[in-house]
Amino acid sequence: MKIDRLFAITNILIQKKTVTAAELAQEFGVSVRTIYRDMDILSSCGIPIFTEKGRNGGISVMDHYTLSKTLLTDEEQNQIIMALQSVNVTGNVEVKDALRKLGNIFQKNIESWIEVDFSEWGKSEEDKEIFYIIRDCILSAQAVTFWYYNGRGEETKRIVEPLKVVFKSMSWYLYGYCRKRKDFRFFKLSRIKNLEVLTDTFDTKIPEEVSFQYKNKFSNIIRLKLKIDRSMGFRVFDEFRSGIITEEKEYFLVDIGLPRSQWLYSYLLGFGETLTVLEPEEIRIEMIDIIKRIEKNYI
């Protein structure tokens, strides 16, 4: 788009000080005549552009010029700073220097409007390092290899073309193309071990239906009716807001759909004696069987 080119040209002029029309034309794949028309537009917007003939001449902007009050409106400047602050609070992408520089350019107070802690209690430096390595490999389009532990406790070695990191349900995931499975998959970062960067690169594109695929991963939903002690009220309202919650004198009745997998039983058992499965009967039976097997470990 023309506005993108105009913004990029202005940034080049600020950084390089002087550049020729031919160099700009080659950079953006347009004619020299188009570049001169762009210069006229930028000048009409109040940007102090001037040209100098001769061997060392070219196109320049006035020294000490900034973008603070030209191509970006006050609202757009605020939106850029707010977007970078949102990224910064993840703790996994370092943008503090960029925020400080933009604050100076825009002459804005960059006091953050948002505070979010994505970290876990006892999160190790190894977990952070995995995030940084995957982030860099996504940007450089380099494949990675690692050992992965799936939800069934199986350990396999994978070679993956990393495409995106996703934050879902209080956990970070890698989304990429798994060469072993020959398909796009999600990998929970905390289950990745012995991560290594490979020398080969890739040009795999992210499918448009990424979000749909992620939701479809948990498409086997089962409806549950639960009885939960009032002492667990904080968890009821934190974790079951998408269901139907009925408050009784001594307990809550919760009607909710949850993914049917091995995870479900571990999750329900995490409530201990404060939770009782009322329906369906098949889940009640399976819970009883699991509890009996656990009991054998302590007899």
UniProtKB/TrEMBL annotation:
InterPro entries: CBASS_pafABC_assoc_protein, DeoR_HTH, HTH_11, PafC-like, WCX_dom, WH-like_DNA-bd_sf, WH_DNA-bd_sf, WYL_dom. This is YafY family transcriptional regulator. The keyword Transcription applies. GO terms for molecular function: DNA-binding transcription factor activity. PROSITE patterns: HTH_DEOR_2, WYL. SUPFAM superfamilies: Winged helix' DNA-binding domain. Gene3D superfamilies: Winged helix-like DNA-binding domain superfamily/Winged helix DNA-binding domain. Keywords: Transcription, Transcription regulation. Residues 2-57 form the HTH deoR-type domain.
